[in-house]
Amino acid sequence: MTNLELVLNMLAEATTTAISKEKKPKDFDENKTIAKQGGTIAGNTRKAIEAKTGRKVVSPLNAKALQKGVPRKKLK
Question: Is the pLDDT of residue 10 over 60?
Answer without folding.
Answer: yes
